Amino acid sequence: MYPILFRFPEWFPFLGGEPITTFGVMMLLAFLTAGYVLKAEMLRMGYDAEKAWDLLFMGVIGGVVGARLYYVLLNYPRLVEDPAGMLFSRGGMVWYGGFALAAGLVLWRARKLKLPMGRITDASAPALALAYGVGRIGCFLVGDDYGRPTDSWVGVAFPNGTPPSTADAISGQFGITVDPALVEQYGQVLPVHPTQLYETGISTLVFFVLWTLRRHQHHAGWLFMVWLACAGAERFVVEIFRAKDDRFFGVLTLAQVISLMLVGVGVVWMAKLRREKGATAA
Q: In sequence order, which residues have a C-beta less than 8 Å from that of residue 135 and are 6 or more positions away?
């Protein structure tokens, strides 16, 4: 894959020799995507579209800090061993942590701007779906968050991944038993499920569904709950194929447990916010 896009020349002030990673670039594009989609929806709803960038700024801060904090807490033993390395290393971000803190900050900012919570969350739903898909391309390019070994046609090898998709790394870091037949067939570097692309594809499909439903006639907040349920279901399914070492709940990963909770919340509130035909548009 392509973890590093380019490096600044050594003579460049302050940043000489520092890399620009494909993950960083795609994360920037994900936030910009969210901002433009949110701005378009706020404009359609009749609100000051420029306030979308205020909300986006809160989303960036909360997304980055929350994702990092979640990763640090999830890897607490490593934090104890090397606090500075864990806190200031480039890698290590978890979506659910970023989403939780970003959602809190965005809602706080929306309240300060006197924007209606329900309608703003509805405007955010398509933006979140599409931005998530863009961000997962970054994970693919750096070889992170890939799946279990496979000999199917979809398999992709990550020799320079984080970690590389080698038999030793997959069994040692993720506790997955590797079929010796795969090692015999492919060698140490194994093809794995490109779960990052699975998420990109499904999230893009969810975006189109939400974009079609955005003029719904239910109570404000209904579309956001549709996204929440879809996002939880998508992540639950993809986790089945992921190479993970956090299956603290039997066969379920921590992300799957959280996903089930989000699906439950989304479905319950979708039912509560559903309007009968003939109601005014949201």
A: 26, 27, 30
